Amino acid sequence: MSDQHRREWIYKLCTYGVLAGMFAFLLQVQNQADEYQIRILNVSAIFVTLAVSYNLINGVAGQFSLGPNAFMAVGAYTTALLTISPAEKELSFIIEPIIWPISVLHLPFLPSLLIGGVFAALMGFVMAFPVFRVRGDYLAIVTLGFGEVVRVVANNAQSITNGPLGLKGLPEYTNLWWSCGVAVFTVFCVTRLVKSSFGRAMQAIREDEVAAAAMGINVFRHKMLAFVVHAFFAGMAGGLMAHLITTISPTLFSFFLTFNLLVIIVIGGLGSMTGSIIAAVIITYAGEWLRAVEEPMAIGPLNIPGIPGMRMVVFSIMLILVMIFARQGLMGRREFSWEWFCGFLKIGKRRG
Question: Cα-flanking dihedrals φ and ψ of residue 208, to 5°?
Answer without folding.
Answer: -160, 105
